[in-house]
Amino acid sequence: MFVTPNGEKIFIVDGHIHLWDAREQNRRNRYGLAFIESFWGAHVGSTPPDERWDFDRFCHYGVDGAAKDLFVDGYVDAAIMLPVDLYDFYIEGFNTTEQCAAFKRAYPDKVVLNGRCDPRNGPRGLERLEADHSKYGFKGVKLYTGEWNGVSKGYTLRDDFVVPYLEKCRELGVKIIHVHKGPTTHPLNLDAFDVRDVDHIATAFPDLTFVVDHCGMPRIDDFCWIAAQEPNVMGGLALITSFVYARPKYFGQMLSDLLYFLGPDRILFGSDYGIMSPKWIIEHFMAYEFPEDLAKEAGTPLTLDVKRKILGLNAANLYGLEVPADCRLPSPLR
Asked: CB neighbours (10 Å) of residue 328?
């Protein structure tokens, strides 16, 4: 929980975290090193110098490290995990549901464990999705359209094989679908993360909520227009928030556009932990104010209550998390 200098309490939900293993002994091939080095470049380029990790810790920080960074130092009250397998690059997987479950077991009241699925796996993948849901009881799943899967270097949400998976999610009561639509990570392909397929499934499944993580970066304009027409699409700010320190003008422009097209109730904070840590992002975000021109462009003042929604109340509402009484808004949102 973050507390302002005036004593106001801010409930924090980090809507995008991982628990990965990119150590050398787990890398299957040269792509395993290339992938984590791409993350590492983002970490070094965006993190304040006194908050940077060394490379060995970046490759594996474990349950205890994550708990300290998120719940002790990072103001986080609840954290949402988004698994990604990447077995083509890592022997035991990069950030699998099973690996993430260790964090859930250690901190059951603070960790929200989501599942993952790959629609290219056909009936076998559907069976795994059902078995994982039976075991973990998750509320959401993640689709990572750029993941390599044998000879496939990605897929789009327009592919026919996606529909049975969303129908299965609906059948299981999994109502939250996270979709990674952001910058590429070497060696993955940029086009495989193109956001311009989200409207296809959002229109077809109006009873599901699609959280577009990274808001389609670098195609923010396309995402904003899609979200404007699809009320069941939300924006996940992971990675976008990391620019609040190194490039605050760029960050402000992106946030202004998102507030204008989506409003303050459909935007979720995420640190993209462990690429970034929430502590410094939250501190910079709480201190951030729009310059006059962007305040006018956003159409929504960046008030303390708007920051409360973005930093935690929107995600708590989506996932049904309990918010302490002294962190709620009077109405209508908690």
From this structure: 15
Give phi and psi for 87, each to the nearest 5.
-65, -20
- Tens of pLDDT, residue by residue over 161-170, are 999 999 999 9
Q: What is the mean pLDDT of residues 262-278?
A: 97
Q: Are strands 13-17 and 78-81 parallel, antiparallel or unpaired?
A: parallel
Q: For the beta carbon of residue 31, count every other beta carbon within 10 angstroms.
A: 17
The CA-atom distances, in angstroms, between 45 and each of 54, 244, 276 are 13, 12, 10
Query: How far from the centroid of its chain's Cα atoms is residue 225's Cα?
Result: 20
DSSP-assigned letter for residue 266: S
d(C-alpha 205, C-alpha 198), whole Å: 11
Q: Which strands make up the sheet holding 209-213, listed edge to edge?
A: 115-116, 140-143, 176-180, 209-213, 233-236, 267-268
The burial of 107, by beta-carbon neighbours within 10 Å (0-12 exposed, 13-18 middle, 19 or more buried), is given as middle
- CB-side exposure of 98: number of CA atoms within 13 Å? 6
The residue behind tokens 């462009």 is 297
pLDDT at 183: 86
pLDDT tens digits, one per residue of 181-237: 998 889 998 889 999 999 999 999 999 999 999 999 999 999 999 999 999 999 999
C-alpha dihedral sign at 53, 57, 59, 61: negative
